[in-house]
Design a protein that fits this description.
The chain is mainly alpha-helical. It has 20 helices and no strands. The longest helix is centred in the first third of the chain and has 15 residues. The two termini are 25 Å apart. One of its GO terms (cellular component) is plasma membrane. One of its GO terms (molecular function) is calcium-dependent phospholipid binding.
Length: 317
Amino acid sequence: MAGKGTVVACRNFNATDDAEVLYKAMKGLGTNEDAILQLLSSRSNHQRQDIKHAYKTLFGKDLVDNLKGELGGKFETLIVAMMTAPLAYDVSSLRNAIKGAGTEEKVLVEILASRSPQQVKEIVAAYRKEYDDDLEEDISGDTSGHFKRLLVILLQANRQSGVQSELIESDAQTLFQAGEHKFGTDEQTFVTILGNRSAEHLRKVFDAYMKLSGFEMEESIKRETSGSLQDLLLAVVKCARSIPAYFAETLYYSMKGAGTDDNTLIRAMVTRSEVDLMDVRTEFRKLFACSLFSMIKGDTGGDFRKALLLLCGGDDA
């Protein structure tokens, strides 16, 4: 089932014309931020890459460098994210999460739990090409315990496909024995099963687990584990159930409470905008008492808000 994005390719696209519009928007005194955000939010990522080439061809300058020179703060971070090809964006997000001061575990969790095995393979290869480093080694050197083990399993990108009917009951039973039914939790069992079975298989296991234990899988994980491992297990379970619902929650909690987690808000809006942001909006409306649009509107300001609302693409009142 293909998801629906909010950002689609512009039909009468002309990269040279767009490059000239952007050049004019940045030329002379003051920057026309509005022209920049209106144009870029109505082009697909692929078209934005073409605009970069056209810009360099026309002006001998790097468009992203020019944008960075003219913009600032989180609006700049958002525009630069929109100008980055999706694979390169995932790779640099992971690199920054590992190499920054302290590991930003939530970035590792979000990307590795939500991307398909094929995408993970591409990420690993692109990471090696870009940095001449091994992503698995870098992540292993920065994490520990069962949290590390599950990340390593996800990095193998060998998740099974289809449903193995004969294993549904035994998987549910094994998870029950490893958690609710045991004094102390056998984390390895959770890690192995949740890291290797397909999403459609896991959904059936969760149903069987509920019948068997009387608990939703998520409830047991919350009771049986803690810290980063809990965050990762929950993300894997939620993504097996519904990736759009997982991102709806991710977006909600990036804005809920004191202060906004701008980096998560930017990452989720940009990476889902052409994948399934329409579906994310639908799930958001089902899960929470407001729309994604209204929450962004109430939580952000200025050009940053304008650009995010254009990516959001509409209100679900």
